[in-house]
Amino acid sequence: MFCPRCKRLMQPDRTAHVWRCSGCGHTLPLGRGVEVGRSTPEAREVAVVETKTATLPKAEETCPKCQNGEAYWVLRQTRGADEPETRIFECTKCGHKWREYQ
User: Is residue 43 one of the residues assigned to a domain?
Assistant: First the structure.
């Protein structure tokens, strides 16, 4: 709401229920607010996946726990930027995780 006299922005004064101009002090009645709309959250169905999907690349690495010959791997920068990445393996059979530093 802008003041009709000095064209400044008017602020609501809720104690007096009026719009009050910060420049000239002109007041206008606050009026009744009209609710335009209200959004309600919708219930969504969430799918729970119980099995592990193989989306990571696999390598021929021997698991130190179960001696399985295949593991998923991923590269992560675990140390400084001037140091090489760390390869993290996860056994496809037992899920054991181990690291290989280069």
Answer: no
Catalytic residue among 83, 85, 90, 100: 83
Strands 97-101 and 18-21: unpaired
Whether residue 48 is contained in a domain is answered as no
Expressed as residue numbers, the domain containing 84 is 58-101
Q: In angstroms, rounded to a whole number, what is the distance separating the alpha carbons of residues 80 and 85?
A: 9
The model's pTM: 0.47
Question: 59-63, 75-79, 87-91, 96-100: lowest mean pLDDT where?
Answer: 75-79
Q: Is 83 a catalytic residue?
A: yes
Let me know if 13 is a catalytic residue: no
Out of 82, 85, 90, 100, the active site residue is 82
> Are residue 27 and residue 62 in the same domain, yes or no?
no
| Number of independent structural domains in the chain | 2
Q: What is the CATH number of the domain that holds 83?
A: 2.20.25.10
